[in-house]
Amino acid sequence: MQLREPLYTTDDDNSICADVLYKNKMGVAWMDAPLALQDADGVSISSTNDSVAITVCANQEHDSASSMLVTGVETIAAAYLLSSSVTFCSSRYALAAAELDSVLLASDIVCVDAMSALFVGCGFVLSYAYHLLPRETFLATVRDLLLFIAVDIVLSHAMVLVVGTAWCVNMHSCNGYDAMLTVLEGLTGLRWLDVSQTAWHSMNVTAWPACCLFWCLLLSWLPLSGPAFLKERVGAPAVYLLTACGVAGVLALNVMAVVHRESDLFYANSTNLMYRLQEFTVGVNLAFLVHVQQPHVLQCMEVLGDYVHVVAFLAACTWWGELGVRPEPGGARCMRMYVRNDCLPTRGAFLCRGGFWGVVFVASCRLHTTAALPLISRDAILRLRVLCTAVSFCWPVYILFLLAAGTVFDDGMLQRNAALLSAVMPALLLCVSSAYDCFAKPQLARALGEHTLGLYHRSAQVLGRLRERSHAPIAQEGSGET
Fold it and tell me: Considering the entire predicted model, what is its pTM?
Protein backbone atom coordinates (compact mmCIF):
# COMPACT_ATOMS: atom_id res chain seq x y z
CA MET A 1 0.00 0.00 0.00
CA GLN A 2 1.52 3.29 -1.10
CA LEU A 3 0.78 6.76 0.21
CA ARG A 4 0.44 9.82 -1.97
CA GLU A 5 1.94 13.06 -0.71
CA PRO A 6 -0.63 14.87 1.49
CA LEU A 7 -2.28 18.02 0.15
CA TYR A 8 -2.86 20.55 2.90
CA THR A 9 -5.75 23.02 2.93
CA THR A 10 -6.88 25.50 5.57
CA ASP A 11 -10.53 25.81 6.57
CA ASP A 12 -12.34 28.77 8.06
CA ASP A 13 -12.33 27.21 11.54
CA ASN A 14 -8.52 27.51 11.78
CA SER A 15 -7.93 23.83 11.07
CA ILE A 16 -5.62 21.98 8.73
CA CYS A 17 -6.96 19.21 6.51
CA ALA A 18 -4.84 16.60 4.80
CA ASP A 19 -6.29 14.63 1.90
CA VAL A 20 -4.46 11.32 1.73
CA LEU A 21 -5.04 8.64 -0.87
CA TYR A 22 -4.01 5.07 -0.18
CA LYS A 23 -3.59 3.07 -3.37
CA ASN A 24 -2.91 -0.54 -4.12
CA LYS A 25 -2.18 -2.03 -7.53
CA MET A 26 -4.39 -5.01 -6.68
CA GLY A 27 -7.22 -2.77 -5.42
CA VAL A 28 -8.10 -2.06 -1.79
CA ALA A 29 -11.25 -2.36 0.22
CA TRP A 30 -12.60 -0.62 3.32
CA MET A 31 -10.84 -2.96 5.73
CA ASP A 32 -7.48 -2.35 4.00
CA ALA A 33 -7.29 1.17 5.43
CA PRO A 34 -4.89 1.51 8.39
CA LEU A 35 -6.50 0.40 11.63
CA ALA A 36 -5.35 3.58 13.40
CA LEU A 37 -7.43 5.69 10.97
CA GLN A 38 -10.71 3.83 11.35
CA ASP A 39 -13.39 5.18 13.69
CA ALA A 40 -11.23 8.15 14.70
CA ASP A 41 -12.33 11.71 15.40
CA GLY A 42 -11.78 14.17 12.59
CA VAL A 43 -11.29 11.43 9.99
CA SER A 44 -13.42 11.11 6.88
CA ILE A 45 -12.92 7.97 4.77
CA SER A 46 -14.47 7.28 1.38
CA SER A 47 -13.69 4.14 -0.60
CA THR A 48 -13.94 3.10 -4.23
CA ASN A 49 -13.05 -0.07 -6.05
CA ASP A 50 -9.33 0.71 -6.30
CA SER A 51 -8.56 3.31 -3.65
CA VAL A 52 -9.37 4.60 -0.21
CA ALA A 53 -9.41 8.39 0.28
CA ILE A 54 -8.79 9.55 3.83
CA THR A 55 -9.24 13.16 4.96
CA VAL A 56 -7.77 14.08 8.33
CA CYS A 57 -8.50 17.42 10.00
CA ALA A 58 -6.52 18.59 13.00
CA ASN A 59 -7.26 21.84 14.79
CA GLN A 60 -4.24 24.08 15.27
CA GLU A 61 -5.36 25.02 18.76
CA HIS A 62 -4.87 21.48 20.02
CA ASP A 63 -1.64 19.61 20.53
CA SER A 64 -1.01 17.08 17.80
CA ALA A 65 1.51 14.29 17.75
CA SER A 66 3.84 16.24 15.49
CA SER A 67 3.88 19.30 17.76
CA MET A 68 4.50 17.11 20.80
CA LEU A 69 7.35 15.43 18.96
CA VAL A 70 8.93 18.78 18.04
CA THR A 71 8.57 20.00 21.61
CA GLY A 72 10.19 16.84 22.93
CA VAL A 73 13.12 17.06 20.53
CA GLU A 74 13.57 20.73 21.45
CA THR A 75 13.59 19.84 25.12
CA ILE A 76 16.22 17.14 24.66
CA ALA A 77 18.42 19.42 22.55
CA ALA A 78 18.04 22.27 25.05
CA ALA A 79 19.02 19.92 27.88
CA TYR A 80 22.14 18.93 25.95
CA LEU A 81 23.09 22.56 25.27
CA LEU A 82 22.64 23.48 28.93
CA SER A 83 24.60 20.43 30.07
CA SER A 84 27.43 21.32 27.68
CA SER A 85 27.41 24.89 29.01
CA VAL A 86 27.70 23.65 32.59
CA THR A 87 30.57 21.38 31.57
CA PHE A 88 32.37 24.23 29.80
CA CYS A 89 31.98 26.71 32.67
CA SER A 90 33.13 24.26 35.34
CA SER A 91 36.62 24.10 36.76
CA ARG A 92 37.34 21.07 34.57
CA TYR A 93 37.57 23.28 31.47
CA ALA A 94 37.24 27.05 31.53
CA LEU A 95 36.83 28.63 34.97
CA ALA A 96 38.98 27.68 37.96
CA ALA A 97 37.15 27.02 41.24
CA ALA A 98 33.76 27.43 39.58
CA GLU A 99 30.63 27.12 41.68
CA LEU A 100 29.08 24.78 39.10
CA ASP A 101 31.16 21.80 40.17
CA SER A 102 28.46 20.76 42.63
CA VAL A 103 26.00 20.14 39.79
CA LEU A 104 28.51 18.86 37.24
CA LEU A 105 27.89 15.19 38.00
CA ALA A 106 24.11 15.58 37.66
CA SER A 107 24.64 17.48 34.41
CA ASP A 108 26.78 14.66 33.00
CA ILE A 109 24.13 12.06 33.83
CA VAL A 110 21.45 14.22 32.19
CA CYS A 111 23.62 14.39 29.08
CA VAL A 112 24.08 10.61 29.00
CA ASP A 113 20.35 9.91 29.31
CA ALA A 114 19.23 12.67 26.95
CA MET A 115 21.49 11.60 24.11
CA SER A 116 20.41 7.96 24.28
CA ALA A 117 16.76 9.06 24.22
CA LEU A 118 17.48 11.36 21.28
CA PHE A 119 18.97 8.67 19.04
CA VAL A 120 16.19 6.16 19.78
CA GLY A 121 13.61 8.85 19.05
CA CYS A 122 15.34 9.93 15.82
CA GLY A 123 15.38 6.35 14.56
CA PHE A 124 11.69 5.96 15.34
CA VAL A 125 10.70 9.20 13.61
CA LEU A 126 12.82 8.51 10.52
CA SER A 127 11.37 5.02 10.13
CA TYR A 128 7.84 6.31 10.59
CA ALA A 129 8.41 8.95 7.90
CA TYR A 130 9.93 6.29 5.63
CA HIS A 131 6.74 4.24 5.77
CA LEU A 132 4.37 7.23 5.65
CA LEU A 133 5.81 9.59 3.04
CA PRO A 134 6.27 8.93 -0.68
CA ARG A 135 9.70 7.72 -1.70
CA GLU A 136 10.63 10.92 -3.53
CA THR A 137 9.57 13.16 -0.65
CA PHE A 138 11.40 11.03 1.90
CA LEU A 139 14.64 10.93 -0.12
CA ALA A 140 14.50 14.69 -0.66
CA THR A 141 14.03 15.26 3.07
CA VAL A 142 16.96 13.03 4.01
CA ARG A 143 19.12 14.69 1.34
CA ASP A 144 18.37 18.16 2.71
CA LEU A 145 19.12 17.03 6.26
CA LEU A 146 22.42 15.52 5.20
CA LEU A 147 23.46 18.71 3.40
CA PHE A 148 22.55 20.93 6.35
CA ILE A 149 24.35 18.73 8.87
CA ALA A 150 27.41 18.39 6.63
CA VAL A 151 27.71 22.17 6.32
CA ASP A 152 27.38 22.54 10.10
CA ILE A 153 30.04 19.90 10.79
CA VAL A 154 32.61 21.37 8.41
CA LEU A 155 32.13 24.98 9.49
CA SER A 156 31.96 24.22 13.21
CA HIS A 157 35.23 22.28 13.11
CA ALA A 158 36.88 25.04 11.09
CA MET A 159 35.68 27.56 13.65
CA VAL A 160 36.87 25.51 16.61
CA LEU A 161 40.32 25.22 15.05
CA VAL A 162 40.62 29.03 15.05
CA VAL A 163 39.06 29.92 18.39
CA GLY A 164 40.24 26.69 20.04
CA THR A 165 43.84 27.41 19.09
CA ALA A 166 43.55 30.90 20.56
CA TRP A 167 42.04 29.40 23.70
CA CYS A 168 44.81 26.79 23.99
CA VAL A 169 47.48 29.48 23.58
CA ASN A 170 45.79 31.49 26.32
CA MET A 171 45.64 28.43 28.60
CA HIS A 172 49.19 27.26 27.64
CA SER A 173 47.95 23.79 26.71
CA CYS A 174 48.46 23.44 22.95
CA ASN A 175 48.61 20.04 21.29
CA GLY A 176 49.15 19.71 17.56
CA TYR A 177 47.85 16.15 17.48
CA ASP A 178 44.46 17.32 18.77
CA ALA A 179 44.27 19.81 15.89
CA MET A 180 45.07 17.07 13.37
CA LEU A 181 42.38 14.84 14.86
CA THR A 182 39.89 17.73 14.71
CA VAL A 183 40.60 18.30 11.02
CA LEU A 184 40.08 14.60 10.32
CA GLU A 185 36.81 14.60 12.24
CA GLY A 186 35.55 17.70 10.44
CA LEU A 187 36.27 16.25 7.00
CA THR A 188 34.82 12.79 7.62
CA GLY A 189 32.24 13.30 10.35
CA LEU A 190 33.77 10.46 12.36
CA ARG A 191 35.54 10.71 15.70
CA TRP A 192 38.69 8.89 14.61
CA LEU A 193 41.25 7.66 17.15
CA ASP A 194 39.56 9.45 20.06
CA VAL A 195 39.01 6.15 21.85
CA SER A 196 41.48 6.45 24.73
CA GLN A 197 41.43 8.87 27.63
CA THR A 198 45.22 9.17 27.54
CA ALA A 199 45.62 9.75 23.78
CA TRP A 200 44.52 12.43 21.29
CA HIS A 201 41.18 14.21 21.61
CA SER A 202 38.97 16.28 19.37
CA MET A 203 38.93 20.02 20.03
CA ASN A 204 35.21 20.18 19.15
CA VAL A 205 34.18 18.29 22.26
CA THR A 206 30.39 18.43 21.97
CA ALA A 207 29.90 18.05 18.18
CA TRP A 208 29.70 14.26 18.24
CA PRO A 209 25.83 14.06 18.19
CA ALA A 210 25.75 15.89 14.83
CA CYS A 211 28.48 13.63 13.42
CA CYS A 212 26.73 10.46 14.57
CA LEU A 213 23.36 11.65 13.29
CA PHE A 214 24.87 12.44 9.89
CA TRP A 215 26.17 8.89 9.48
CA CYS A 216 22.97 7.38 10.89
CA LEU A 217 21.02 9.17 8.16
CA LEU A 218 23.57 8.23 5.51
CA LEU A 219 23.47 4.53 6.49
CA SER A 220 19.74 4.44 7.19
CA TRP A 221 18.80 2.58 4.00
CA LEU A 222 19.78 -0.80 5.45
CA PRO A 223 17.94 -0.64 8.82
CA LEU A 224 14.94 0.97 7.10
CA SER A 225 14.54 -1.67 4.39
CA GLY A 226 15.73 -4.65 6.44
CA PRO A 227 12.63 -5.23 8.63
CA ALA A 228 10.27 -5.20 5.64
CA PHE A 229 12.49 -7.67 3.79
CA LEU A 230 12.63 -10.02 6.77
CA LYS A 231 8.90 -9.83 7.38
CA GLU A 232 8.21 -10.66 3.74
CA ARG A 233 10.66 -13.57 3.61
CA VAL A 234 10.41 -15.00 7.14
CA GLY A 235 7.52 -13.32 8.92
CA ALA A 236 6.87 -11.01 11.86
CA PRO A 237 8.90 -13.12 14.36
CA ALA A 238 12.06 -12.23 12.41
CA VAL A 239 11.47 -8.52 13.09
CA TYR A 240 10.92 -9.26 16.77
CA LEU A 241 14.17 -11.21 16.78
CA LEU A 242 15.99 -8.36 15.03
CA THR A 243 14.72 -5.85 17.58
CA ALA A 244 15.65 -8.17 20.45
CA CYS A 245 19.17 -8.54 19.05
CA GLY A 246 19.54 -4.74 18.89
CA VAL A 247 18.36 -4.35 22.48
CA ALA A 248 20.64 -7.20 23.57
CA GLY A 249 23.62 -5.47 21.95
CA VAL A 250 22.90 -2.25 23.83
CA LEU A 251 22.48 -4.11 27.13
CA ALA A 252 25.64 -6.17 26.57
CA LEU A 253 27.73 -3.06 25.98
CA ASN A 254 26.34 -1.45 29.13
CA VAL A 255 27.13 -4.50 31.23
CA MET A 256 30.66 -4.75 29.84
CA ALA A 257 31.26 -1.03 30.46
CA VAL A 258 30.17 -1.38 34.09
CA VAL A 259 32.25 -4.52 34.65
CA HIS A 260 35.33 -2.92 33.07
CA ARG A 261 34.79 0.46 34.63
CA GLU A 262 38.49 1.25 34.80
CA SER A 263 38.95 0.97 31.06
CA ASP A 264 38.17 3.06 27.98
CA LEU A 265 35.14 0.99 27.00
CA PHE A 266 32.51 3.49 28.13
CA TYR A 267 34.49 6.49 26.91
CA ALA A 268 35.11 5.00 23.47
CA ASN A 269 31.47 4.02 22.84
CA SER A 270 29.42 6.81 24.43
CA THR A 271 30.39 9.27 21.66
CA ASN A 272 31.04 6.67 18.97
CA LEU A 273 29.01 6.03 15.84
CA MET A 274 28.71 2.25 16.23
CA TYR A 275 26.92 2.36 19.57
CA ARG A 276 24.69 5.28 18.62
CA LEU A 277 23.79 3.47 15.40
CA GLN A 278 22.58 0.55 17.53
CA GLU A 279 20.26 2.86 19.47
CA PHE A 280 19.12 4.41 16.20
CA THR A 281 18.34 0.94 14.78
CA VAL A 282 16.31 0.00 17.86
CA GLY A 283 14.07 3.00 17.20
CA VAL A 284 13.79 2.08 13.51
CA ASN A 285 12.70 -1.50 14.27
CA LEU A 286 10.23 -0.35 16.90
CA ALA A 287 8.63 2.05 14.42
CA PHE A 288 8.27 -0.74 11.88
CA LEU A 289 6.48 -2.95 14.40
CA VAL A 290 4.12 -0.09 15.16
CA HIS A 291 3.60 0.56 11.46
CA VAL A 292 2.56 -3.03 10.71
CA GLN A 293 0.14 -2.88 13.65
CA GLN A 294 1.66 -5.62 15.81
CA PRO A 295 -0.86 -5.90 18.68
CA HIS A 296 1.64 -6.61 21.47
CA VAL A 297 3.78 -3.63 20.50
CA LEU A 298 0.74 -1.33 20.28
CA GLN A 299 -0.39 -2.43 23.72
CA CYS A 300 3.05 -1.74 25.19
CA MET A 301 3.13 1.68 23.54
CA GLU A 302 -0.28 2.50 24.99
CA VAL A 303 0.81 1.50 28.49
CA LEU A 304 4.05 3.49 28.29
CA GLY A 305 2.18 6.50 26.95
CA ASP A 306 -0.30 6.38 29.82
CA TYR A 307 2.46 6.24 32.46
CA VAL A 308 4.80 8.81 30.95
CA HIS A 309 4.38 11.12 33.95
CA VAL A 310 5.55 8.37 36.30
CA VAL A 311 8.63 7.75 34.17
CA ALA A 312 9.34 11.49 34.01
CA PHE A 313 9.12 11.68 37.81
CA LEU A 314 11.57 8.80 38.19
CA ALA A 315 13.96 10.48 35.76
CA ALA A 316 13.79 13.74 37.70
CA CYS A 317 14.47 11.87 40.95
CA THR A 318 17.49 10.18 39.36
CA TRP A 319 19.00 13.51 38.31
CA TRP A 320 18.01 15.39 41.46
CA GLY A 321 19.67 12.79 43.65
CA GLU A 322 23.06 13.59 42.07
CA LEU A 323 23.06 17.28 43.01
CA GLY A 324 25.90 18.10 45.37
CA VAL A 325 27.31 14.55 45.26
CA ARG A 326 31.07 14.39 45.25
CA PRO A 327 32.38 12.40 42.29
CA GLU A 328 34.10 9.12 42.87
CA PRO A 329 37.89 9.32 42.71
CA GLY A 330 39.17 7.75 39.54
CA GLY A 331 42.42 7.20 37.76
CA ALA A 332 43.42 7.95 34.23
CA ARG A 333 40.68 5.68 32.92
CA CYS A 334 37.10 5.49 34.18
CA MET A 335 33.50 5.82 32.97
CA ARG A 336 32.98 9.32 31.55
CA MET A 337 31.96 10.91 28.27
CA TYR A 338 34.65 13.60 28.02
CA VAL A 339 38.25 13.28 29.05
CA ARG A 340 38.27 16.08 31.66
CA ASN A 341 34.92 15.30 33.25
CA ASP A 342 34.42 13.54 36.56
CA CYS A 343 34.12 9.78 36.70
CA LEU A 344 30.52 8.64 36.57
CA PRO A 345 29.21 6.31 39.27
CA THR A 346 27.79 2.97 38.24
CA ARG A 347 24.21 4.13 38.78
CA GLY A 348 24.73 7.04 36.37
CA ALA A 349 26.49 5.23 33.54
CA PHE A 350 23.60 3.14 32.21
CA LEU A 351 23.22 4.20 28.59
CA CYS A 352 20.27 1.84 28.13
CA ARG A 353 18.24 3.83 30.68
CA GLY A 354 18.15 6.80 28.33
CA GLY A 355 17.13 4.49 25.47
CA PHE A 356 14.14 3.30 27.50
CA TRP A 357 13.17 6.87 28.23
CA GLY A 358 13.36 7.56 24.51
CA VAL A 359 10.83 4.79 23.86
CA VAL A 360 8.57 6.26 26.54
CA PHE A 361 8.91 9.70 24.99
CA VAL A 362 7.88 8.38 21.56
CA ALA A 363 4.95 6.49 23.07
CA SER A 364 3.73 9.65 24.80
CA CYS A 365 3.57 11.42 21.40
CA ARG A 366 0.97 8.89 20.18
CA LEU A 367 2.66 8.47 16.80
CA HIS A 368 0.74 5.23 16.24
CA THR A 369 -2.62 7.07 16.20
CA THR A 370 -4.42 9.23 13.68
CA ALA A 371 -2.63 12.43 14.72
CA ALA A 372 0.64 11.03 13.41
CA LEU A 373 0.03 12.39 9.91
CA PRO A 374 2.72 15.00 9.28
CA LEU A 375 0.71 18.17 9.93
CA ILE A 376 3.79 20.18 10.84
CA SER A 377 4.38 23.86 10.23
CA ARG A 378 7.39 25.50 8.63
CA ASP A 379 8.18 27.31 11.89
CA ALA A 380 8.53 24.01 13.72
CA ILE A 381 10.93 22.68 11.08
CA LEU A 382 12.93 25.91 11.26
CA ARG A 383 13.26 25.52 15.02
CA LEU A 384 14.62 22.00 14.59
CA ARG A 385 17.16 23.21 12.04
CA VAL A 386 18.29 25.90 14.44
CA LEU A 387 18.77 23.36 17.22
CA CYS A 388 20.79 21.07 14.93
CA THR A 389 23.04 24.02 14.15
CA ALA A 390 23.32 24.93 17.82
CA VAL A 391 24.50 21.43 18.73
CA SER A 392 27.20 21.55 16.04
CA PHE A 393 28.48 25.02 16.99
CA CYS A 394 28.05 24.60 20.74
CA TRP A 395 31.69 24.36 21.82
CA PRO A 396 33.33 26.95 19.50
CA VAL A 397 30.66 29.57 20.27
CA TYR A 398 31.13 29.00 24.02
CA ILE A 399 34.89 29.47 23.62
CA LEU A 400 34.40 32.63 21.57
CA PHE A 401 31.95 34.06 24.09
CA LEU A 402 34.27 33.43 27.02
CA LEU A 403 37.25 34.92 25.16
CA ALA A 404 35.21 38.04 24.46
CA ALA A 405 33.99 38.21 28.07
CA GLY A 406 37.57 37.83 29.31
CA THR A 407 38.60 40.99 27.51
CA VAL A 408 35.91 43.01 29.34
CA PHE A 409 35.73 41.41 32.81
CA ASP A 410 38.42 40.04 35.07
CA ASP A 411 38.75 36.37 35.94
CA GLY A 412 37.37 36.80 39.46
CA MET A 413 34.08 38.24 38.22
CA LEU A 414 33.72 35.49 35.64
CA GLN A 415 34.29 32.81 38.26
CA ARG A 416 31.77 34.35 40.65
CA ASN A 417 29.15 34.48 37.89
CA ALA A 418 29.82 31.05 36.37
CA ALA A 419 26.20 29.98 36.93
CA LEU A 420 24.92 33.06 35.11
CA LEU A 421 27.33 32.45 32.24
CA SER A 422 26.14 28.85 31.87
CA ALA A 423 22.57 30.13 31.42
CA VAL A 424 23.40 33.07 29.13
CA MET A 425 25.65 31.19 26.71
CA PRO A 426 22.99 28.72 25.44
CA ALA A 427 20.60 31.63 24.80
CA LEU A 428 23.30 33.49 22.89
CA LEU A 429 24.11 30.30 20.97
CA LEU A 430 20.51 29.94 19.87
CA CYS A 431 20.44 33.56 18.66
CA VAL A 432 23.61 33.08 16.63
CA SER A 433 22.33 29.78 15.23
CA SER A 434 19.03 31.38 14.21
CA ALA A 435 20.78 34.16 12.31
CA TYR A 436 23.15 31.70 10.64
CA ASP A 437 20.29 29.37 9.71
CA CYS A 438 18.25 32.16 8.13
CA PHE A 439 20.95 33.96 6.15
CA ALA A 440 23.90 31.65 5.48
CA LYS A 441 23.03 27.97 5.78
CA PRO A 442 20.60 27.64 2.82
CA GLN A 443 23.10 29.19 0.40
CA LEU A 444 25.96 27.07 1.72
CA ALA A 445 23.90 23.88 1.56
CA ARG A 446 22.81 24.68 -1.99
CA ALA A 447 26.41 25.27 -3.06
CA LEU A 448 27.52 22.04 -1.39
CA GLY A 449 24.71 20.12 -3.07
CA GLU A 450 25.64 21.46 -6.51
CA HIS A 451 29.31 20.68 -5.93
CA THR A 452 28.50 17.15 -4.76
CA LEU A 453 26.20 16.56 -7.71
CA GLY A 454 28.83 17.84 -10.15
CA LEU A 455 31.47 15.61 -8.56
CA TYR A 456 29.13 12.64 -8.89
CA HIS A 457 28.52 13.34 -12.59
CA ARG A 458 32.25 13.76 -13.29
CA SER A 459 33.01 10.51 -11.49
CA ALA A 460 30.32 8.73 -13.51
CA GLN A 461 31.82 10.09 -16.74
CA VAL A 462 35.30 8.93 -15.78
CA LEU A 463 34.04 5.47 -14.87
CA GLY A 464 32.13 5.29 -18.14
CA ARG A 465 35.22 6.15 -20.15
CA LEU A 466 37.28 3.55 -18.29
CA ARG A 467 34.61 0.96 -18.96
CA GLU A 468 34.59 1.81 -22.67
CA ARG A 469 38.37 1.56 -22.89
CA SER A 470 38.38 -1.79 -21.10
CA HIS A 471 35.83 -3.22 -23.55
CA ALA A 472 37.34 -1.64 -26.69
CA PRO A 473 40.18 -4.22 -27.27
CA ILE A 474 37.76 -7.07 -26.80
CA ALA A 475 35.43 -5.64 -29.41
CA GLN A 476 38.26 -5.06 -31.88
CA GLU A 477 39.65 -8.56 -31.38
CA GLY A 478 36.24 -10.03 -31.94
CA SER A 479 35.76 -8.04 -35.15
CA GLY A 480 39.21 -9.23 -36.41
CA GLU A 481 38.37 -12.83 -35.86
CA THR A 482 35.21 -12.44 -37.80
Answer: 0.79
